[in-house]
Structures are given as C-alpha cells and as structure tokens.
Amino acid sequence: MAHSEQSEEPSVALTGEELQRLHPVKSFVRRSARLDDRLQRAWDRYAGHFLLDMPRGERDLEVADDFVLDRDFVRRAWGNDHGLVIEVGSGQGENVAAAAKAHPELNFLALEVYDPGVAHALLFAGRDGLENLRVAQVDAQEFFGHLADGVAEEIWTFFPDPWPKMRHHKRRIVQPSFAAHVRRALADGGVWRIATDIEDYALHVHEVMDDGSLGFANAGTITVSLPTEHVGKGNADEAAALPHADFIESERFDGRILTNFEKKGLAADRVIHDFTYRKA
Hints:
Layout: H1 16-22, H2 37-50, H3 71-78, E1 84-88, H4 94-102, E2 107-111, H5 115-128, E3 133-136, H6 140-143, E4 152-158, H7 176-185, E5 186-196, H8 199-209, E6 216-218, E7 222-227, E8 244-249, H9 260-267, E9 273-279
Parallel strand pairs: 1-2, 1-4, 2-3, 4-5
Antiparallel strand pairs: 5-9, 6-9, 7-8
Helix pairs in contact: 2-5, 4-5
C-alpha cells in the first residue's frame, strides 16, 4: 500500500534547507500495485536470496542511519570482490538482468521502488541463476548517502521519470545534490551513464552536469541540437520554435539492451539521448 505520514507543524519557522531534510523532494510517488500470481511466486521463491537484507530506517524505503554499503558488504552479499555496477530505477529488470548475464565478471545492484519491478528483477535473477545480481527496494536518493566512497565502477540511470510539468522539475533525480552522491560513490575514473527519450530532460541533464563544477567530465563524442529553454508538459510542441544550441552527448550505450520501454519511445518518434559522465 502507498505510504503516508502525518507530522505536527513545527513550532518555529524553519529554513528551506531544514524543511528539505524533514520532507525531502522525492523523484517518485509510491503507488500500490498488486502482484499477479507469477510475480508473487517469484518474490516468495527468490527474495530470500536475491533481495538485499539491510537494516531498515524509520521511513518507508529507507535504510538504518548506520548502514554502509562498502566493499566488505559487497563481499558478504555477492560472495566475491568484483566491481559493482548500480542501476538506479531498474524498471522491469530487463536491462540489469541482461547485463548481469552478459558480464559474470561484474556485480550488479538493481534499485527499484515499485513492487512489480522488484518482482520482475527477482524473477530474472532466479530463472537465469544470476548470482552476480542483487536487488534493493529503496529510495535511491536516500540510499546513495549510505554508499561508501568509491564502491561502484559504474552507475546507470536509464529513462528516469521525466516529471514533465514545470512545477515538478525539482523532482527529477538528476540534481546537483544527487550528482554529488554519485560522484563520491564512484571509483576513480568511474562513469555515470544516463539516458532519456525526453528532449526537455536532456536539456536538464546538460544544465546540471556540463559546467564541471560537480567534478564530472562529459565523455560524449557526438553533437546534438537542443532548445535552450525549458517547456512544460502542455507546451512541449512549442520546443521546435525555441532557440537551439549544440551540446555534446554519447553514442548509444551498447551495454543497454533495447527494452520494451525504449521501443515504445522509438515508436513514438522520440530521440534517445545518451550521456556518459566520467568522474574527473
């Protein structure tokens, strides 16, 4: 069921930063979703092995304050010391499962908030015996604060929720604060791979990531043209008439399979924007 909380109004005026800590902006909205029989069987059968067992925090989808995912935790949970790749928002689990199957020399962690997505990832892991794949049902923004410095080789964020309405752009997961967590969690030379099929989100990524102040270098090799102003959901068709500028992006990441979600975007004539940001 969807999680809800009630709290008393503060007795003193709080700063914006303090309010953000009390009520952080989420990049997702919890929705209740009943698992069908097949997914429920997968959860019951495989969760004990593939779903990470972590001490939980007081809030929904958060882990305990003192939890740290470091190399020692990786060795215990995966049973080896291989490099770690983290996918933020694994959706139906198709991509991370395919990557785990193709790269047994790496460990993979799928982060997902929705029950059906978690269950699908568990189903793929169990069906294909993917011992290098683990799943965590967590709020990624909160969870990244529990990652040890340099614990991950790569971090993937493919087709995040675009939050198309202008007033919701603050909910987009690619933000300076999250980028700081990503950079800290990456090993030296590690990369953050991002993909979106929403033009306005592509502009947002460039605005957050390209100026170098966050300690990332854009490792792209191709030039694309994008509007230089943001549009909301209702006026997205007006983007073509706006001033445009050139930006650097990446070729399609060949380690990402063509999922059903991406196929739908292509069928709707959307352009896929790929980004590779290397820890500088």
